[in-house]
Amino acid sequence: MEQPTPEDALHRGRALVLADLAAGGEVAGPEEVSLLEEAVSHRRWWCEQWPAGAAFVTGLLAQDVQDALLARRGRWPLCPLCAGGGPRDEPHALQVEPELGEDPHWVCEATGRVVAPVGALAGAGR
Q1: Which residues pair with 78 in a beta bridge?
Q2: Are 124 and 82 in contact (CB under 8 A)?
Q3: What is the pLDDT along the chain (126 residues), one digit of tens a residue?
Q4: How far apart are CA 30 and CA 15, in angstroms?
């Protein structure tokens, strides 16, 4: 697999995380987009320091936004697989796996099931 340039990786990661923010409906407002832009700015510096890490930036951006949203409005993204029934109907967030690796995906923290690749939440759990 060809290494993306840091700038290409940042643009791709931004687009994928923005798609996941938009998949939740009310989560892609100006405040959330600003949080994403702050994460991109921070990771741009990070990529300058470690260019080989550009392949990991999508998952890191997703985690950065997830952490920032947790501090401001609560868990994001909520698991679409466990909502509405059974012992797991308490809302819980998805986690990014691998924490530092290529091809990041969202995983249900309760069951460990893969829900969707980062950027593809719009079609998850339907």
Answers
A1: 93
A2: no
A3: 566 789 999 999 999 999 999 997 667 789 999 999 999 999 999 999 999 899 999 999 999 999 999 999 889 999 988 865 444 567 889 999 999 999 999 999 889 999 999 999 998 865
A4: 15
DSSP-H helix ranges across the chain: 6-23, 30-49, 57-72
Inter-residue contact 80 to 125 (CB < 8 Å): yes
In whole angstroms, give the CA distance from residue 75 to residue 68. 10
Q: Is the peptide bond before 77 cis (omega within 30 degrees of 0)?
A: yes
3-state helix, strand, coil in the chain (%, to 5): 50, 10, 35
